[in-house]
Amino acid sequence: MLVTKTLPELRDACASLGGSLGLVPTMGALHDGHLALVKAARAGRATVAASIFVNPLQFGPNEDFARYPRDAAGDLAKLEAAGCDLVWLPDVETMYPADDVTTITVAGPSEHWEGAARPGHFTGVATVVAKLFGQVRPDFAYFGEKDWQQVQVIRRMVQDLLLPVEIVPVPTVREQDGLAMSSRNRFLSPAERQAAPRLYAALRQAATAIAGGAPTAGALGQAETALAAAGMARDYLALVDAQSLVPLQTATPPARIIAAARLGSVRLLDNVAVEA
């Protein structure tokens, strides 16, 4: 496995690998969800590159950039064991030179939910992903569906800017009790960890009810009650169009329930499809 830390090293490594290239962008602190993206890239018969960069531009002033878990040595060992061919480890100065003046703002799917709860977040995401695409020049890029809105924002950016990369979404990887895998789950207390799977359970119950013809408001209200009973503070809970993220009153395909809820110091994200 090649490990690169400068742009010349990256360019030489990409040139030496040849063939189609799949990129797995990460912020490190890797878990089985990230490794599922590497597996998906390998299954696509692409040479696999992964990036590790904790992106300051997507964190707000009161968010957990400094607290975000970092484990470079452990991450590299996991990537090598998973069959990754190339790792890109840029520093902040490489990603954001002092004279940079360009950022990317994607309207449309970024305007609600995470975009409203975390102003500027998706500008940071779109900018860093565009830079990674320009640096690595992948043919495919793999993203987990846990961050559903993020996937739609990146898809729209690629579509609108005519970027020559195919976005490949990969289903959410979950613990045995249903909790979506996340690097931040390590900050849950034992009691919070026991309660956390109730988010997914509530979303599944709401999706089943809506698909069966129950009123959307009632189904989402029951889900919100379940979250409150589990000690979670809801940021948002909504039925949306799966691509545009606009709210829906009825489950017009493709529809998705998306949610963000706070449990202790941890903000949990999850989503489920609604099969109308």
Biggest sheet overview: 6 strands, parallel
Estimated share of beta-strand residues: 15-25%
Our count of helices gives: 10
| Overall pLDDT confidence | 96
At CATH level 3, the topology of the largest domain is: Rossmann fold
Number of domains: 2
The shape is: globular
CATH architecture descriptor name of the largest domain: 3-Layer(aba) Sandwich
| Percentage of residues in helical conformation | 25-40%
Query: Which consecutive residue ranges, at least 5 long each, have pLDDT under 50?
Result: none
The termini sit apart by: 45 Å
Q: For this structure, what is the CATH homologous superfamily of the largest domain?
A: HUPs
Question: What can you see in these coordinates?
Answer:
This protein has 276 residues and is α/β, with parallel strands linked by helices. It is 38% helix and 20% strand. Strand 3 (47-52), helix 3 (72-81) and strand 4 (86-88) form a beta-alpha-beta unit. The strands form two sheets. The chain has a six-stranded parallel β-sheet with strand order 1-4-3-2-5-6, sandwiched between helices. Strands 7-8-9 form a three-stranded antiparallel β-sheet, covered by helices on one side. It folds into two domains: 2-170, HUPs (Rossmann fold, 3-Layer(aba) Sandwich), CATH 3.40.50; 183-271, Pantoate--beta-alanine Ligase, Chain: A,domain 2 (2-Layer Sandwich). Helix 9 runs antiparallel to helix 10 (216-229). The chain has helices spanning 7-17, 32-43, 72-81, 92-95, 114-117, 121-136, 148-161, 190-195, 198-211, 216-229; strands at 2-4, 21-26, 47-52, 86-88, 140-144, 166-170, 233-241, 255-263, 266-274.
